[in-house]
Amino acid sequence: MALLKVTDLNVYYGNIHAIKDVSFEVEEGEIVTLIGANGAGKTTTLNTVAGLLTPRSGTVEFKGEELSRVPAHHTVGRGMALCPEGRRVFLNMSVRENLEMGAFTRSDSEARETISTVFDRFPRLKEREGQSAGTLSGGEQQMLAMGRAMMSRPSLLMLDEPSMGLAPILVDEIFDIVKELHEAGTTVLLVEQNAAKALSIADRAYVLETGRVSMAGDAADLAHDDRVRKAYLGG
Ligand code: ATP
């Protein structure tokens, strides 16, 4: 059984049909990426899986349970965590407080234990634990958003454009962290406009085009596909 199985999802914003019959799966232990141009529907798909949006039709099965009408604050307790587009860290709160917010489904002792794991993974956050998040650089804010998502100890970590707005060296660092989290046992669903990077770390990929899945397959195969190369890899 797939960890996440999305079937025939249709999502609307008013009359705009943003997601059209989208189906995909994530198996436990995989990194799966959704790639596509601006406005293709990647964020809408992720937000629907997380329970921030309700689909007009279709199902989101997670660990065998139908969650498409379960709101986001309950999907976290089921083992999903979303690291949203634009990071959305609480700028006026400290680094530590931001991390604690990610543990709202867990006991204080569990949160304390996980915070030290997160600090081991992100030593730069440890150094800045008392500093307000608004004073962090873009890359550090991205690490904080990922650390906050890890605080619920998710079985599925969903990352929306983690590389957005970061200098190339930081993009590499963020992708290395995603690989490390994956090697430590986290299943990852990654949304990216940086298709080259995303395909280089993913097991499988789905290409979204104007709200539909246009291609799917092994990430390595798609990285060599002529259509993918022309449309998303700059040649
Ligand atoms: P990006 O990388 O730019 O975020 P995306 O692939 O994540 O692109 P979405 O943000 O999911 O795409 O947008 C899918 C479609 O839905 C687009 O046509 C977009 O204009 C539309 N859309 C997104 N959010 C809203 C909204 N709140 N209200 C109306 N339309 C929206």
From TrEMBL:
Keywords: Amino-acid transport, ATP-binding, Nucleotide-binding, Transport
InterPro entries named in the record: AAA+_ATPase, ABC_branched_ATPase_LivF/BraG, ABC_transporter-like_ATP-bd, ABC_transporter-like_CS, BCAA_Transport_ATP-bd_LivF, P-loop_NTPase
Domain of life: Bacteria
SUPFAM superfamilies from the UniProt entry: P-loop containing nucleoside triphosphate hydrolases
A UniProt-annotated Pfam family: ABC_tran
MF (Gene Ontology): ATP binding; ATP hydrolysis activity; branched-chain amino acid transmembrane transporter activity
UniProt-listed CDD domains: ABC_TM1139_LivF_branched
Any single biological process term in GO: L-amino acid transport
Key word Transport present: yes
Record-annotated ABC transporter domain positions: 4-235
Similarity annotation: Belongs to the ABC transporter superfamily.
Protein name from the UniProt record: ABC transporter ATP-binding protein
